[in-house]
Amino acid sequence: MESRVGVHGVGLYLPPILRTNEHWPPATVERWVAERRDQPPPPPPRTEAEKLVYEALRVQAQDPFQNAVVRHVIPDDMSHVDMEEQAALAALAHANIDRDQIDLVLTHRVVPEFLLGNPACELHERLKLRPECFAMHMDAASYSFIMQMCIAETMIRTGRASHALLVQSSAPSRTFDYEDAGSPIIGDGATAVVMAPSTGDRGIVATVHYVDGRFPKTLIASVPGKRWFDEGKGLIHVADVPQMKQVFMRTVDACKDSVEAVLAKAGWSPDQVDYLSMFQGTPWLRDLVKVSLNCTRARCVETFSRTGYLASALIPASLAMAVQEGVLHDGDAVVLTGGGTGMTFGAIALRWGA
Asked: How much is the pTM?
């Protein structure tokens, strides 16, 4: 059997400040409800999956907190690298790998404190990794983790690296308008994953990736209505509401198509999937994808109500929680799927374990 590359360790760090729904004044919440009631509906559904999304959006519009109950918030004196270090150390400990073995570091930050730098170098210094380590920051929006996995797999299989550390951090709370109706779903946190060669049938079995560049201005960070370097405060916001509605309508079909394609490449059927790790940017996406795929026996961990939106850290956070809670087992057939604004989307099939 050809040698595979698998996940050897996962780590999760959530900052100490807890923000509950009581953080928002009742008058603000009432305004959100009224705004949602007056918004035009999303485009009419064209597929069975879109019909499910249409109904989910209708129900979701009645909940100003979008099913989020609590979210973790980064303190003013904490940086991205502080969170990343804690997540990385947890992943290294879980993998039982010494940091001197790491020769590939890939990072993704939402939103970094500075532009034009290489955040991977900052983390490299904090962890005191070997100077020969390949360190690179990647940005494929919320799809960055799956992209990181594929690049790490390629470098390890071709002998360019032996052990990879993939790190994702998200601190959007600092760049969000808390009068915005989307603010309750935002959470902060960091995750890390260690990848290395695996034995037996463990590791990545198949991958698929897709691009649809028609929606470049959905969720972005800039001065609203301007560029990030124009005068004013840069905020995370939806720059094009009609584009975002189109993307929402496509989400279930995009994930369904990705999972069906990766299962075909892996030679698996939906009822063979033991664990499904979904990008959970909405409270309903995971459940609708499971229904559309008829993948009902797959186990999952619900993250949205506990963490809110963690961008590219969402999928590794679900893996870390599943390990901590005993939901994910050695040898499980695992599927990861999701996407990022821009947009890119796809899926990975892997056999869990080292």
From this structure: 0.95
